Amino acid sequence: METKKDWIDIRYNGEFAPELSDFLFFLILKLRESDENQHFIDNDELNKKFADFSGPKELDALLTKLSTVSSGFRDNRQNLSYRFALFSDFVISENGFTVQVSPYFNQWFDLLLAEENMTQFYLETYINIGSRYAKEFFRKIARNQKEGGGVWKPSLEELYQTLDIPKGYNSTRLNQRVFNQLQKELVGKDKILESLEITAIKGGFKNLQVQRYEFDFRFLK
User: Fold this and answer.
1) CA distances from 19 to 12, 28, 197 (A)
2) What pLDDT is attached to residue 3?
3) Neighbouring-strand partners of residue 40
4) How many other C-beta atoms can be found within 10 angstroms of the C-beta atom of residue 114?
5) Residue-wise pLDDT tens digits, 3-42
6) pTM confidence score
7) For residue 110, what are the contacts with CB-CB under 8 A and spacing of at least 6?
């Protein structure tokens, strides 16, 4: 199915700890390499990469957490939204375990890589961001940055579409419900951005109408 991306997100109910990130990234790449909807991980490979989770109880606890990772994307051409658990089944045996993924996995993976190269840092950061607006803003600036920063100058139409903002939001609501959320979730010493300056570019009658916004951002070093 040919799909035009509108949004894609990844959700996890709880703190996405580093060990979960490591394991999730490992599974995603393994599944993509095999180009199938399931893959078997044997105990030897598991012990080499994740010795702390090679025991039956530890592995079961980790896979239980990963089973709650969900994602979704929107198909603009058919006006359909997809929401699904990324991993549908884990089967643990004496020799290892088999992971089964959603039938939408390959589409999801292709969409995730459509405009940027996915790294573990990118994936872990994206999952740990709470709000939908902040997630989509991070997606946008992560692929537009140069030397740790950049400027994004979207039209109002592009801004609303990229961040999936309700069309009825005026400048006051944008500030309260979107821009404040970006500052709260993304900017700070223990977060993602060192700074984020949002400037309203005005024009029209007496230069009072907001024509677009400019986002000047700098990633933490």
Assistant:
1) 14, 14, 34
2) 42
3) 98
4) 12
5) 445 566 677 777 777 677 778 878 887 887 776 788 898 9
6) 0.62
7) none
Among 56, 62, 63, smallest CA distance to 93 is for 56
What is the DSSP secondary-structure string of 95-155? SEEEEEE-TTHHHHHHHHTSSS---HHHHHHHHH--SHHHHHHHHHHHHH-BTTEEEE--B
What is the rounded distance in angstroms from the CA atom of residue 14 to the CA atom of residue 16? 6
Alpha-carbon distance of 178 to 199, in angstroms, equals 14
Please state the length of the chain: 221
Residue 157 CA to residue 101 CA, distance in Å, equals: 35
Residue that wins the pLDDT comparison between 113 and 19? 19
Q: Is residue 7 helix, strand or coil?
A: strand
Q: Are 5 and 78 in contact (CB under 8 A)?
A: no
- Residue 34, CB half-sphere, CA atoms under 13 Å: how many? 17
> What is the C-alpha to C-alpha distance for residues 201 and 43, in angstroms, rounded to an integer?
58
Q: What are phi and psi of 176, to 5 degrees?
A: -75, -45
